[in-house]
Design brief:
The protein is of the alpha/beta class. The chain has one domain: Rossmann fold (3-Layer(aba) Sandwich), CATH 3.40.50.180. It is 32% helix and 20% strand. It has 6 helices and 9 strands.
Length: 196
């Protein structure tokens, strides 16, 4: 799979079934990865750090909760904190808001994806994984509008197919891949960046 385009960030959205899908993608990455990866995983506000701790135990790459005004760095996986929307500002920092839920969700995948598209434009990769509602479809539409790359997990493989299927049916997805294909793509991007 040839990468003929420079990317600067990856955003991932997932809900039900997300832990196993995220583990599959992140556990194969090296300790230093050449892009930042920013994730919204729907979860209960009671589970403050559990997701990060479980993922970190299975991954070499650094995994942490995103913090207000924090600068976005390559080689780090940032996860939206429970009960806050996560946005990316034009100075490549995060902001957190407690605005109303979007698609019944806070954090919302749409909110992250839309703000990331405005900052990274055609240098952004958006990935939508397993989940049970429509969150992410609107955000993917904005990523596509700004010429970013949009990828959905194959609904036939997803533990909960509704979320990737909603984005596919909205005609905003360029690539529909199984996790193994997404893994290969992420590794190829890193290898390509290392050559530049």
């Amino acid at each position: 799979m040839d990468i003929d385009h420079t990317y600067e960030a990856i955003v991932i959205g997932t809900s039900a079934g997300g832990l196993s899908a995220l583990t599959a993608l992140l556990s194969i990455l090296p300790s230093y990865y050449s892009l930042p990866i920013i994730i919204v995983q729907h979860r209960s506000k009671d589970h403050q750090n559990l997701l990060e701790e479980v993922l970190q135990s299975k991954c070499l790459i650094k995994i942490q909760q995103a913090e207000e005004k924090e600068s976005i760095l390559a080689g780090v996986v940032y996860i939206a904190p429970p009960n806050y929307h996560l946005l990316i500002e034009r100075d490549y920092t995060f902001s957190l808001t407690s605005d109303e839920p979007v698609n019944y969700s806070r954090p919302s995948i749409d909110v992250l994806f839309e703000s990331a598209a405005l900052v990274y434009a055609n240098k952004l990769i958006g990935i939508i994984l397993t989940g049970t509602n429509r969150d992410g479809s609107e955000g993917m539409s904005v990523i596509k509008q700004y010429a970013g790359l949009t990828i959905a997990q194959d609904p036939k493989e997803a533990e909960f197919p509704a979320m990737p299927l909603a984005a596919i049916q909205a005609h905003v997805i360029e690539q529909v891949w199984q996790l193994a294909e997404i893994q290969k793509f992420l590794i190829n991007i890193h290898a390509d960046n290392e050559k530049r």
